[in-house]
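for the writeup, i need someone to sanity check this before i put it in the appendix. the sequnce is what the collaborator sent (i think, or maybe the updated version? ugh). structure was predicted straight from it, no edits. if anything looks off just tell me and ill rerun, i have time this weekend
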Amino acid sequence: MIIDAHTHLWKTQNGTVNGKKVFSVGGGKSNFGGEIRQMMPPFMYDGENTAERLIANMDYANVSGAVVTQEEIDGNQDAYLLSAKQKYPKRLKISSLYEEGKPFNTDGFDGIKICAGRLKTQDLTKHSEVFEQAAKNKKFISVDLADGDGQTGSLSELIKQYPDLRIAIGHFGMVTRDGWTKQIKLAENKNVMIESGGITWLFNSEWYPFDSAVDAVKQAAEICGFEKLMWGSDYPRTMVEITYKMSFDFILKSKALTDEQKQKFLFENAKEFYGFKDLPECIKIKNMLED
């Protein structure tokens, strides 16, 4: 069984990047702050990145559960994610979006997402109210830090202040950037985990089978242990280059990892950290290319 610790959903993309609007223009493309970018696979031609499409991809790839995080470039998707969770309560864990200077919500959500690298005030201790509320309400924090170690000090202070708060650091610590191991080192703390959402993006120039990404997973495990690492796809943006199944298949087929390490990375760690229960065991459906 497999759990995806980093996905995105939206009904209508209505976000911002560097103060400029981000919105769909059709064909899977978006206006990304004035530049047209292929945001999703072209068959998502209507601009909708729905729960139904994610679940269909999960079923095909035999992924049982997924964590839906958020990004400011997509706009606040709180209302849509609540409806998605209502429809797929056993398969999805959802995060509300923390937006600097705005009220944030925890009711009905499993966690809160902080796009820390996009904050105007980069010192995370200045945003302690969201950590306090997450701890109080037993939610998890999903956080994408700025490149390197610029925010590791302030996050470390909050980890000490809220030692029982579950915190998942995304994008595998921005693994291809200088100082990434400082982010990984934070997972030496009791309730801090590292998830690999975006790792295939960060190693995209190498492409499948992402041997350097596997090496990075092993290096991170040497720092904090395999029990602190979780797989994430960063669906759907990474799907503009690879299929959903390819986003974890390179792990399954790697000879550099043991079966026990793969099981922890792809399933067991996320199941325990996010509290998934009664997950369905996906049934493999033979595709048209198989004998």
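The first helix runs from residue 51 to 61. The chain is about 30% helix and 20% strand.
thx in advance!!
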